[in-house]
Fold:
Amino acid sequence: MLISRTHKSNFINYKNKINIFENIHKKLIFIILFLFLTSFYLLSKTNNIFTESKLYFLNKILINNGFIIKNIEILGVNHLDKDDIIKIINTYNNINIFNVNIKNIYREIKNNSWIKKVSVEIIHPNTIKILLTEKKPIAIWQNRYGNSLITKNGDVISEKNLEKFKSYLPIIIGQNAHKNVHSILNILSSNKDFVKNIWSLTFVNERRWDVHFNQGLTIRLPSKNVKNAWEKIVHLNQKFNILSLGLTEIDLRNSAQILGKVNIDKNLIFKKKHS
Structure:
C-alpha cells in the first residue's frame, strides 16, 4: 500500500514537471516567433527590400499568429459612449498590430468633445489599452443652436441625451453665458441646500445674472459685488425661508435697497372677501 502511494506521488510530480516544461517550451516558441516576425517585418518596411506582395504575405503571417487587435481595454469612462471609441479601433481590425497607427487613434479620440486627456498603449501581441479622463459638465447651455453641456472653462460638450443631466445641472441662458457661468456658480455654492432649488440662470446683457428657482422666485443680482448680494439672500432665507413666502422676485441690482414682488392670487383674495 505504501509503495503504491509513493509510486502515485512520483507519477504526479513527474506529470507536473512535464506540464511546466511544456509551458516553458510554448513561451519560448512564442518569444522566438515574436522576435523573428517583428524584426523581419519592421526591417522589411524600413529598408524597402520586399515587394508589396511579400509584405502582404508577411502581414498575413503576423495576423494568423495572433498579432492583431483582439482585446480593447477602455478605462475612465463615465458619460462617454464606449461604442464611439470602439468604432475608431475597429477600423484597424484587418491589419497586424504593428501597423496600428497610435497617433491617428489618439487624434480621433481627442476630437471627441467629452475627452480632456487620453493615452493609447499597444500591449503585444493583441491588446490596445486606452485610458481616458472626461471633462466635467457644470451646466446645460441653452442657445439658438440647441442645448449643450458646459465645463468650468466654457468648453462645449456635445451630448444627445441631456435628460440624465437635467436632474442636477442648472440650465443657463444668454450670450456668452457658457464663458461666465463658473464664477457665478462658485458664489452660489456657498449654501448647497438653498442652491439645489435653482433650475436656471439667465446672463443679462453679458453683465449680470438672474437666478430662477423651482418655487417661482427670480433673484436679480447686480453686475458688481455679486458675492455680497448673494450673502444677503442667503441670510434672508435662513431668517425667513424666502422660498415659501410666495415671492416672485427679489431685486438686488441697487445695493442700497432690496425690492420684492409677491404673487397676488386674485381668486384667493376674492374668496376671503366673500367668506
In short: The chain has a mean pLDDT of 83.
